[in-house]
Amino acid sequence: MGKASGALDVQGVEEQSWTGLGWADLAVVGAWLLYALSAAPGLTWAHQGADGGELLAAAVTNGVPHPPGYPLYMMMLQGWLAMTEILLRGGDLAWRSNLFSALCAGLSAGFVVLTAAHLLRLQTGRWPCAMLAGLAWAISPLLWSQAIISEVYGLHALIVAFLGWATLVKPQRLWYLGVALALGVAHHLTIVLLLPAVLYVQWAQTRTWSRMLRVLTWVVVGGLLGALFYVRIPWAAQQMAPVNWGYADNWQGFWWLVSGQAYRGYLFSVGFGVMLSRLAAWAYTLTVQYTPFGLALVLIGLAHNDREQHPLRNFELLWLTPVSIYSIGYYTRDSDIYLLPVVWLLALLAAIGLGVCVEWAQHRWPMQKRTWRLMVALLFVGIAVLLLVRWPSLALRQDVEAQRYLSDVAAVLEPGSIVISRDDRETFALWYGAWGSGELERSAPGVILLNDSLYQFDWYRRQQGALHPDIPAISDSIDQVLTENVGRRPIFFAEQLPIVDAASLTPIGPLWRYETRRY
Cα(161)–Cα(298) distance, rounded to whole angstroms? Predict the structure, then answer.
């Protein structure tokens, strides 16, 4: 495989041809159709998607979601919901949001095709190989699972793929880098973990400090432009939306939100034994994305770059190492989602590995064009088979668990009720039902939703006092709320919590009605 197949040198690189753009467009359309057909029909809890209810409630009420606030995502989601409200003449709110994730993830497949084709630009059949990489990325379980629910990671995947394309294909056009970094900073702050790899590529081009000064200027400009999006947070906080994390109408609340103070305890907080199990989970997550066959191609591509393309190898190591360390050390149930940039890189390595295998086979057994086409066709068939195998575990067309939960709650909830929850699934579903779709507000006007775990924060107690000044003890504690309001308002729990005696709770539908305290 020639040097240009993996080189970082972009001198004399041709512009993307119309043929290449056609391949990329085909990957985008194919991926989007796959996601649209397999997307959840509405609100879902599947694929670690409980946050979807909260994100949608924040979008509808112009509020602020959980840290770090995701200002770019919120603005884009609000625009998308407004546009689809007109174009689709309504339709389920969560389903339309799921389609936004599908669109973003589908577009990322196009950038994978273009980037892989660039790395294979002197390889016979580079566009079919690049197309295979794009499709493999599209059906990787990590991306597919996030592309069909209301979550921030479809957009994150698109920004990562765009940043990778700007870094490897268009490094001379620094404004692409600035735009990519601005979008990344405005959306998901983990994009900064990719900066070492991005800066290395720029240094590897010319190794001159004057060039790096220009690069750093664009990095700073992009970061500052992205940071400007966070102005949305204090502005939205002053609108008194019911979803208003950090109640960031002051500097203390703003910094609590954007710095992720609530989640710092999850980072590198476990012992050595648990860290080893996290490392094993990391290896398993990456292995299942492309199957052992795909992983073999990845290793071939990595070995090729290690032998012949040292700059590209260094880029790959600098790209995957910080993200992997963060994912392993961040001890949450969904931290594997942060490996999306690594999965993107593996798709490119698989394409390089496939190119190496094809070139080796052609050299050893010269193949006619018909034989080559047959091999490519078989690989596409393999992608199709893998898609069918994964469909039952990933597709959510029949998933209505969260929707059924909301319907059951609406059937038993009384007007003016206080509903107390703790877990994300129930809490965010209730938020969606009350402030997103409005289902709960229509069935039980004046419902008040409280989260027990958020009462530990001063901003949350202050927010509840501002939202419900007529509710006694609302800004004090859950215990005080129960004491002052029992007998005055219907009180329900979404889960059986240890803060009350089980004898005080009477099951009614999916809820538990609180009658009186008994000691």
Answer: 18
- Is residue 59 within 8 A of residue 81, CB to CB? The reply is yes
Q: How confident is the model at residue 4 (pLDDT cuts 50, 70, 90)?
A: very low
Residue 17 CB neighbours (<10 A) = 11
CA distances from 186 to 59, 99, 179, 236, 258 (A): 16, 21, 11, 16, 11
Could you say which DSSP state residue 41 is in? S
* Rounded alpha-carbon distances, angstroms, from residue 320 to 51, 152, 393, 480: 26, 21, 27, 49
Provide Rg for the chain, Cα atoms: 25
Note whether 445 and 416 are within 8 A (CB). Answer: yes
Asked whether residue 359 carries a pLDDT value surpassing 90, the answer given is no
Q: Could you count the other beta carbons within 10 Å of the beta carbon of residue 390? A: 17
Rounded Cα distance, 267 and 196, in Å = 21
Cα–Cα distance, 140 to 137 (Å, whole number): 5
User: Residues in the chain, how many?
Assistant: 519
Q: What is the pTM of this model?
A: 0.94
Chain centroid to Cα 129, Å, comes to 26
pLDDT for 410: 96
For residue 273, what are its two tokens?
Answer: 């034994």
Q: Pick the residue with more confidence: 191 or 88?
A: 191
